[in-house]
UniProtKB/TrEMBL annotation:
Positions of the HD-GYP domain: 105-292
Species in which this protein is naturally found: Paenibacillus elgii
Record keywords: Hydrolase
InterPro entries found in the cross-reference section: HD/PDEase_dom, HD_domain, HD_GYP_dom
SMART domains in the record: HDc
UniProt domain HD: residue ranges: 127-241
PANTHER family: CYCLIC DI-GMP PHOSPHODIESTERASE PA4108, CYCLIC DI-GMP PHOSPHODIESTERASE PA4108-RELATED
Protein name: Metal-dependent phosphohydrolase
Tree of life domain: Bacteria
MF terms (GO), sorted A to Z: hydrolase activity
Pfam families noted in UniProt: HD_5 (PF13487)
Keyword Lipid metabolism: no
């Protein structure tokens, strides 16, 4: 399958990955043949990129860090939690803990898999997909940094709940009042949950603080920002760079990785950014690219140690004259990706 912009999708093509709603329900199933109405609806609900099936790349399989089944279960739990917070009711932290245990088990089993944020976003599900992505990336960074199992669970729950302050009616990030900022509101929600570590509440509180002391809501200097919050800040920043549905634009992964390197040291913890860059796929599988040889192809494989040097399948001609070859950029060191084709 290939990863393409919604504007380049045509009626009659087949969907390569299932699209979920905010509560984990299926909106469109993998394999459905897309119609003009479906494509128009996907655009209307904010979808910008999708996977489509392609006979020339049918053998490509995305290596998932966490299974779709687990993601759906976590989204359902998060939906229940967020609904409770919106209505001012208490929420069940045990359910969150059980979901996190399952998610952590899968991440530990698949920790050698490069992160590819392949879930299709809509206006409805973007907050849920964002929190799961931040949770997965934060956990991988924590594993790379040698955190204990207890620390990883605290970090993962903190990452999953880092934006809960956005659900409060009094939240206003533009007011100039730090106590109305979603970070402060999230801390107020979580600090009263005695069954949760206070460090989890501080992830919500501090994840928009920056290493130069110019962040929100308290302008903390870098050495006063807790490790968990510094890790979540890196994951949160990357996911936000990739997806900006509010303005209908997105930064490509390789551009986002370059931006992360620029932010390292000044805004983000440099060591954590280095660990992060070891976990993420710079050119996700299914992406169409143009090589320095002037050939075009699709990313079909990854290298854990060299995320910026994937395997590219180049297809030329058609029918009996079709020529297919794979270019392993880890081995062909004089060939480079010149641009990404959407």
């Amino acid at each position: 399958m290939r990863y393409v912009h919604i504007e380049n999708v045509e009626s009659g093509q087949y969907l390569g990955r299932t699209i979920f709603s905010a509560n984990g329900a299926v909106l469109l199933s993998e394999g459905v043949q897309l119609t003009v109405f479906m494509i128009t609806t996907l655009k209307r609900i904010g979808v910008t990129m999708i996977y489509i099936k392609d006979q020339q790349f049918d053998d490509i399989e995305l290596a998932d860090l966490v299974s779709e089944e687990t993601k759906r279960a976590v989204m359902q739990r998060m939906g229940e939690t967020f609904d409770s917070i919106r209505s001012g009711k208490d929420f069940n932290t045990k359910h969150i803990g059980v979901s996190i245990d399952t998610l952590l088990d899968e991440i530990m089993r698949n920790k050698e898999v490069l992160v590819q944020l392949s879930d299709i976003r809509t206006h409805d599900n973007e907050m849920y997909v964002h929190t799961i992505n931040v949770c997965m990336m934060s956990t991988l960074i924590g594993i790379n940094m040698g955190l204990s199992t207890t620390q990883l669970k605290e970090l993962a729950i903190g990452a999953l709940l880092h934006d809960v302050g956005k659900l409060e009616l009094v939240t206003d990030d533009e007011s100039g009042d730090p106590r109305k900022h979603h970070t402060w509101r999230g801390f107020e929600v979580l600090k009263h949950k005695r069954e949760l570590s206070l460090l989890i509440a501080h992830v919500a509180f501090q994840h928009h603080e920056t290493m130069d002391g110019q962040g929100m809501p308290r302008q903390l200097p870098g050495d006063e920002i807790h490790l968990y919050a510094r890790i979540v800040a890196v994951a949160d920043t990357y996911d936000n760079l990739l997806f900006d549905l509010s303005e209908g634009r997105r930064m490509l992964p390789h551009d986002a990785c370059e931006r992360m390197m620029v932010l390292a040291g000044e805004k983000l913890d440099r060591e954590i950014v280095i660990q992060f860059l070891r976990t993420v796929s710079v050119y996700p599988t299914g992406t169409s690219v143009k090589l320095s040889t002037r050939e075009t192809g699709v990313v079909v494989g990854q290298h854990r140690g060299l995320p910026g040097r994937p395997v590219i399948r180049v297809v030329k001609g058609g029918g009996d004259d079709m020529e297919v070859k794979e270019v392993d950029l880890a081995k062909q060191t004089t060939v480079f990706i010149e641009s990404v084709l959407m």
